[in-house]
Design a protein that fits this description.
Layout: E1 31-36, E2 41-43, E3 49-50, E4 55-68, E5 71-79, E6 86-92, E7 97-102, E8 104-106, H1 110-131, H2 133-165, H3 169-215, H4 232-235, H5 245-250, H6 305-321
Antiparallel strand pairs: 1-4, 2-3, 2-8, 4-5, 5-6, 6-7
């Protein structure tokens, strides 16, 4: 069984490589390659924007009769993503870029235009210096002046950086903080002065109004009666109670008329001769007959009820002793 991966091939003794037929391919044949759009472009047919970096399956061919320093120039064919119109562009080895040929327009690129302008100016200067030695001297003088200005500006920047390196930022912040506090204090004082001025003006206006009201002699409104203080009784000193309070509760006041009905006047007892003895009181119930009862004290018309009651009690005591 032969090997699956053959490293050496067999060549017969009569092998002649010149007799092998060569494949003849056209020089302008095309290959299908995968590439990305090298720049931003816009389709002329539909106006579709194609941004840089969009991928396409393009056809590649070699441009005939165009060579730059022995380097071939290639052309690419792509299709618009919207209308499928054909767009072509080719390489530009001289400027290391691509050039648009057909089907689209390249969008504006400021950087590319700036580079082209710089190259054009440099080329014109070289052409002038080639045939004019005085122009060379003039250009050198301008270059030296420009270089000196650049060095001076650089030195100024260095000095500025050194000065800033010695700046005490803490002191600057502290000074700023103090100034801010002073400003706030000043604003506060101004506010206080304005407030005092407003209060003084209001007080003067009120005094003027009061004086005007007094001149008009308007009757003053009656003052409301003072309300009694509920706790005033606690601040007052306690008053001495009357000693006769219990007597007045049980008996009553001595000068009152209803107490006069409590006294009963005893009637004098009649003698056997039918004459009533004056000044003798009737014997008390239960007392023995034949005994004399002490005459009660005569009742004065102006005597009080308490004196009448005392006389009645004394008469009872005398009867009991007898």
């Amino acid at each position: 069984m032969s090997e699956r991966k053959v490293l050496n091939k067999y060549y017969p003794p009569d092998f002649d490589p010149s007799k092998i037929p060569k494949l003849k391919l056209p020089k302008d044949r095309q290959y299908v390659v995968r590439l990305m759009a090298p720049f931003n472009m816009r389709c002329k047919t539909c106006g579709e924007y194609i941004y840089k970096g969009k991928k396409f399956n393009a056809r590649k061919e070699t441009v005939q009769n165009e060579v730059y320093l022995g380097l071939p120039i290639f052309r690419f064919y792509i299709k618009c993503t919207r209308c499928l119109a054909e767009i072509t562009f080719k390489t530009d080895p001289e400027n290391t870029d691509y050039t648009m040929e057909h089907g689209a327009t390249r969008n504006f690129q400021a950087e590319k235009l700036l580079e082209e302008e710089e190259k054009r100016v440099q080329k014109e200067r070289e052409d002038e210096e080639l045939n004019n030695p005085m122009k060379v001297l003039e250009n050198r003088t301008k270059d030296s002046k420009l270089e000196m200005e650049v060095l001076e500006n650089l030195q100024e920047l260095k000095d500025l950086n050194q000065r800033q390196a010695h700046v005490d930022f803490e002191a600057m912040l502290r000074q700023h903080r103090l100034s801010e506090e002073e400003r706030q204090k000043q604003e506060q004082e101004e506010d206080e002065r304005e407030t005092e001025a407003l209060l003084e003006e209001a007080r003067k206006r009120r005094l003027l109004e009061d004086s005007d009201s007094e001149e008009d002699a308007a009757p003053a409104p009656p003052k409301p009666a003072p309300r009694p203080n509920p706790t005033a009784i606690l601040d007052e000193a306690p008053k001495a109670k009357r000693r006769v309070e219990s007597w007045e509760q049980s008996v009553g006041s001595l000068g009152r008329a209803p107490l006069s009905g409590l006294v009963v006047v005893k009637k004098p007892r009649a003698d056997p001769d039918g004459s009533a003895g004056q000044g003798q009181a009737a014997p008390a119930p239960g007392a023995p007959h034949g005994r004399k009862v002490a005459d009660p004290a005569p009742l004065l018309p102006a005597a009080s009820s308490l004196s009448q009651l005392g006389a009645y009690l004394d008469s009872d005591d005398s009867n009991g002793s007898n």
